[in-house]
Design brief:
Shape: globular
Oligomer: single chain
Number of helices: 7
Largest sheet: none
Structural class: mainly alpha
CATH class: Mainly Alpha
Radius of gyration: 17 Å
């Protein structure tokens, strides 16, 4: 009986929401505390939160200029339909800023009607 209770407790712990908070990360980012923003957003982004993925993409763009990470996080967010991520992903490919300019990739980031 104790094993069943322990197994249930472990299972519930695995399904608990990721630690991290979007708004706390935004506050940290606005203060210039990028490490704290990262700590808030990264677990959420890894869990598939489109807003956290978008925020990480923006942070990599504006703070670190790590364009491989920009594309990674914006693409993950855009694939979930995040409108700003789709727009920004298209803009990165249109400008060729940090990536090879590509009109086909730029179009893939834009929302179709």
């Amino acid at each position: 009986m104790r094993r069943i209770a322990l197994a249930a407790a472990l299972l519930l712990g695995l399904t608990a929401p990721a630690l991290g908070d979007i708004d706390t990360g935004v506050d940290a980012f606005e203060r210039g505390d990028y490490a704290a923003a990262y700590r808030e957003w990264k677990p959420l982004a890894d869990e598939g939160d489109a807003n956290a993925q978008y925020n990480l993409g923006g942070m990599y763009y504006h703070v670190e200029q790590n364009y491989a990470e920009v594309i990674k996080w914006l693409r993950l967010s855009a694939e979930q339909g995040h409108a700003s991520a789709r727009h920004d992903l298209g803009a990165v490919y249109t400008s060729g800023h940090g990536v090879k300019q590509s009109s086909s990739e730029a179009g893939a980031g834009k929302e179709t009607t």
